[in-house]
Amino acid sequence: MQPKKNSIIKTLKLSKKKILVFIFFVAALVASFLFVLKDIPESATIGANNYPQSTKIYDRNGKMLYTFYTTKNQTFVSLDKISENLKKATIAIEDRDFYKHGAIDLRGITRAFIYTVFKKQVQGGSTITQQLVKNSLLTPERTITRKIKEIILAFVVEGVYSKDKILEMYLNQVSYGGTAWGVEAASYVYFDKPVERLNLAESAFLAALPEAPSIYSPFGSRPELGKKRQLEVLRRMEEQKYITKDQRREAGEFQLKFSKIQNKISAPHFVFYVKALLVQKYGARAVEQGGLNVTTSLDLDLQNYAQASVAAEISTLERMNVTNGAALIAKPGTGEILAMVGSKDYFDEENDGNVNVVLAKRQPGSSIKPINYAVGLIKGFTAATPFVDEKTCFPNPGRAPYCPLNYDGKFHGVVQMRFALANSFNIPAVKMLKANGLEAMMATASAMGIKTFEDL
User: Fold this and answer.
1) Among 212, 289, 209, 288, residue whose Cα is nearest residue 256
2) Taking residues 287-308, what's their average pLDDT?
3) Which of 194, 196, 207, 344 is deepest in the core (most CB within 10 A)?
4) What is the CA radius of gyration of the chain?
5) Are 271 and 57 in contact (CB under 8 A)?
6) CB crowding 230-246: b at 16 or more within 10 Å, else e
7) Torsion from C-alpha of 242, 244, 249, 252, nearest 10 degrees
8) For residue 283, which phi and psi values (nearest 5 degrees)?
9) Are the C-beta atoms of residues 134 and 152 closer than 8 Å to each other?
10) pLDDT (tens digit, 9 = 90+) per residue, 323-336?
11) Which secondary-structure segment (H or E) carries 74?
């Protein structure tokens, strides 16, 4: 009986060792898991739409004037406002089984491994959900810890959000190159149109970009690579029955027309005038990151006409050493600004074109006369009140008397107020000012919104 007893004791000792090893292994696994989880971000923040969004300025007819942003040009759009072609193109090239698998795609990982090892063609194995997590919640470093976090969060996100919502968030947050983040910003940057108006060829091109935006950019050194990638997107769309062979051929032959690379701005003086008003009312953060959509009173067609008119007029005055000019068109009755031309050319650095001459302080000249005569009307004068337009000198304490002249160098005798104002005669205007008093005229001007009088 003794040998049997010893055998049992040895077995128990061996079992205890195995149990201890097992417990140690489980403890280490749990500790590692907790270590990974301790810094994991909240998955709820992925759908909070709290990322910075661009503010867009429009004219009165909905034409885009400019987009303000900090580092990312980004505008959220709902899934139903995104081109069906773009949604299908993205799924075809990024995650063909997106609506079939869960957080991770084992078939996709296997397929990517086979293509990489045996066909020497690199394919990604990450799902759209994983890419969303990686882009929105995690840092970009490539480590095992980050990959584990990515997979865990992908499962959490799949448990919280529908597939449509995940696709919507991905399309609104992925980078399309440069400052363009999300499909709406990218659509304007590359094609100068909202994303819902993209055709098949344009959609396939945008879907091609996220893998390597700088390489496939049409503005880069090798734009043919972007075209090649677009054709691959179209091939996969046909392969996955999203489009027909004829649609693939037509889209592949379609001549893409890209926007100019610069960040376009229309009516720049007016746009920055509006921005200053917005910042004053809402703060800089709201303007540059709050995703505001601002419709203004400006008429862009009228603005362009006014800008061209100013430029043409200045060109005829170059012989007189005139290099700049401005114009403001307002709607009578409401004061709405329909056009604001701050200079001949905003981008003319030599003549300080970025300075808004419309807003710059200057001598008012004859533009103050209507206010001057308005004070007279308040005091009981009428449009028919006569003034004697003759040589007149006014006392000027400490200096020589002030003897104004008319623009034509002539005197016109007795004229009514309406005639004096219509012809901008100077002598009747000074007589009106003397009758009103300077303080009364300035008070009326201030009540009308003119707040920039310097001390006299």
Assistant:
1) 209
2) 93
3) 207
4) 36
5) yes
6) bbebbbbbbeeebbeee
7) -10
8) 95, 155
9) no
10) 899 999 999 989 99
11) strand 73-74
